[in-house]
Amino acid sequence: MIRDQPQGADLLAEARQVLREIISPGLASEARYKILMVLRAMDLHNAS
């Protein structure tokens, strides 16, 4: 759960979860592919 004053990492984690679990399931295949690509880029950036 996000605190009242979340840090950047908290916000990114929440954004990834929202994109993956709420937004992407309802998208058409091309838009879903693009969202998954963005999520992967976010994961790679976060790992470095």
Helix content: over 70%
Sequence of secondary-structure elements: HH
Q: Main beta sheet: strand number and arrangement? A: none
Tally the structural domains: 1
Q: Strand percentage, roughly?
A: under 5%
Separation of the first and last Cα atoms: 24 Å
The overall average pLDDT, rounded, is 87
| Tertiary shape | flat
Q: Which parts are unreliable, with pLDDT below 50 for 5 consecutive residues or more?
A: none
> How many strand elements?
0
The structure class reads mainly alpha
Radius of gyration over all CA atoms, rounded: 12 Å
Number of helices: 2
Give an overview in words.
Helix content is 73%, strand content 0%. It has one domain (9-47). The chain is built from 2 helices and no strands.
Which structural traits does this protein have?
mainly alpha; 48 residues
Q: What's the SSE blueprint?
A:
Blueprint (H helix, E strand, L loop, with lengths): L7 H16 L5 H19 L1
Helix pairs in contact: 1-2
Give the structure's gist in a few sentences.
With 48 residues, the protein is mainly alpha-helical. Helix content is 73%, strand content 0%. It has one domain (9-47).
